[in-house]
Design goal:
Shape: globular
CATH superfamily: Rieske [2Fe-2S] iron-sulphur domain
Order of helices and strands: EEEEEEEEEE
Oligomer: single chain
Strand content: 35-45%
Largest sheet: 4 strands, antiparallel
Number of helices: 0
Number of domains: 1
Number of strands: 10
Radius of gyration: 19 Å
Length: 130
């Protein structure tokens, strides 16, 4: 897990949400009475953008079909057995930091695992050595 800057706290006013792209993922960040919460932006029902939904208290309504989610737990108000992924948010100064399992670096570049002794892919040969 790594802490990655999500947004500035001042960018997410109380009672609102925002859509944020970070480290190759699209998340929704919400300000609930000064406490910040992050979820996957895609509503599990049909993929609507939760960060663009209306928030009332701790609950955001998906703007596409109205499914409602508790942003503090990820549980669906419609069906608590269905959840949206949540991510811990920390506040440092004015920065909101989110804890993510990274598959890309924070700039969005994919991470590549190096396998010692692996040969170059035939379609992309190694440069000639002189």
């Amino acid at each position: 897990m790594a802490r990655v800057k999500l947004a500035a706290a001042t960018d997410v006013p109380p009672g609102e949400g925002r859509v944020v792209d970070v480290a190759g993922r699209t998340l929704a960040v919400f300000n609930v009475e000064g406490a910040f919460f992050a979820t996957d932006n895609a509503c599990p029902h049909r993929g609507g953008p939760l960060g663009e939904g209306d928030i009332e208290g701790r609950v955001v309504a998906c703007p596409w079909h109205g499914w409602r989610w508790d942003v503090t737990t990820g549980a669906s108000v419609n069906n608590p057995a269905v959840t949206v992924a949540c991510f811990p948010v920390a506040v440092e100064g004015d920065d909101l930091l989110v804890e993510l399992e990274l598959t890309r670096n924070p700039d969005g570049v994919p991470w590549v695992e190096h396998t010692p002794g692996a040969r170059a892919w035939p379609g992309n040969p190694s440069p000639r050595r002189g």
